[in-house]
């Protein structure tokens, strides 16, 4: 079965996620694929979301940032890193596997069940010193908001902001900013839905056997007001061309 939120079981796991599962989790190479597929299916029964059904949790996007070595260096020297809406917290594992002291690294999510599934995916409940904080990012009385205001030098968050409607997204962003250190150079970083869009078309391509060229560009709205977005904001939209190749 393949749909927008679920794809067929993987036949291979490659890239940084495989490295992490083999080296950090010490899963034998021959067992990685089965382990990942079983975990995905178990999680999807409870959380039937695209991020799980489409194996988004195998994407580690910190590595894609040119500034990652500098971020890592800062965390090693005492800066605090948070993965917000971390789900299984693959980014957290990557940062710690790359030498960041676990006491400087945090993960947070609304659901502790998801963070626990992360332990099952990475098989590291006993050896992992990272603190996970179960909190609603919008809750000003949460452990996250009350204990960590202004504490984080780096806040990573992927596939999260775009899930909210515009007004709520601004509220979320403000809550995130409250967690951010006031030191110049502190940053919020992550990735967003354009990747999801491309993935959608790669699934359509896989299913239909038709090859497409997918082009995505971001541009400003020509008339922000027409879209009921505040005039003083730089509004972006995604243009796309799906060109059939075969
Ligand atoms: C699409 S998943 C993205 C997970 C992960 N960042 C990734 O890219 O693989 C969105 C995550 O946001 C979490 N979430 C949703 N609402 C939240 C809230 N109000 N506060 C904190 N986390 C929330 C969900 O539990 C889920 O783990």
Task: Please provide a brief summary of the model.
This protein has 9 helices and 7 strands. The protein is an alpha/beta fold. Helix 1 (15-24) packs across helix 5.
Helix and strand arrangement:
Blueprint: H1 15-24, H2 32-46, H3 50-53, H4 68-76, E1 81-84, H5 90-97, E2 105-109, H6 112-122, E3 131-134, H7 143-147, E4 154-156, H8 166-179, E5 187-189, H9 193-208, E6 212-220, E7 236-244
Helix pairs in contact: 1-5, 2-6
The structure holds S-adenosylmethionine.
Give a verbal description of the structure.
With 246 residues, the protein is of the alpha/beta class. The protein folds into two domains: 61-189, Rossmann fold, CATH 3.40.50; 193-244, no CATH class. The protein has nine helices and seven strands. The chain has helices at residues 15-24, 32-46, 50-53, 68-76, 90-97, 112-122, 143-147, 166-179, 193-208, and strands spanning 81-84, 105-109, 131-134, 154-156, 187-189, 212-220, 236-244. The strands form two sheets. It has a five-stranded parallel sheet, with helices on both faces. Strands 6-7 form a two-stranded antiparallel sheet. Helix 5 links the parallel strand 1 (81-84) and strand 2. Helix 2 (32-46) runs antiparallel to helix 6. The chain is globular. Bound molecules: S-adenosylmethionine. S-adenosylmethionine binds next to loops. The site of S-adenosylmethionine has 16 residues, from loops.
């Amino acid at each position: 079965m393949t749909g927008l939120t679920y794809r067929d079981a993987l036949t291979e796991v490659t890239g940084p996620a495989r490295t992490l599962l083999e080296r950090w989790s010490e899963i034998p190479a021959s067992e990685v694929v089965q382990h990942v597929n079983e975990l995905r299916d178990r999680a999807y029964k409870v959380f039937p979301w695209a991020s799980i059904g489409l194996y988004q949790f195998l994407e580690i996007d910190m590595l894609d940032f040119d500034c990652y070595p500098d971020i890592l260096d800062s965390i090693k020297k005492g800066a605090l890193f948070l993965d917000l809406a971390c789900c299984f917290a693959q980014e957290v594992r990557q940062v710690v596997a790359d030498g960041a002291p676990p006491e400087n690294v945090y993960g947070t999510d609304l659901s502790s069940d998801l963070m626990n599934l992360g332990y099952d995916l990475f098989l590291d409940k006993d050896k992992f010193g990272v603190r996970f904080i179960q909190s609603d990012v919008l809750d000003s009385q949460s452990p996250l908001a009350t204990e960590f205001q202004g504490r984080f030098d780096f806040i990573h968050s992927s596939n999260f902001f775009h899930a909210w409607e515009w007004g709520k997204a601004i509220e979320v962003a403000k809550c995130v900013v409250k967690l951010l250190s006031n030191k110049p150079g502190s940053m919020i970083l992550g990735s967003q839905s354009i990747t999801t869009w491309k993935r959608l078309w790669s699934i359509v391509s896989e299913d239909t056997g038709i090859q497409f060229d997918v082009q995505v560009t971001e541009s400003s709205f020509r008339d922000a007001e027409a879209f009921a977005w505040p005039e003083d904001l730089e509004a972006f939209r995604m243009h796309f061309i799906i060109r059939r190749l075969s």
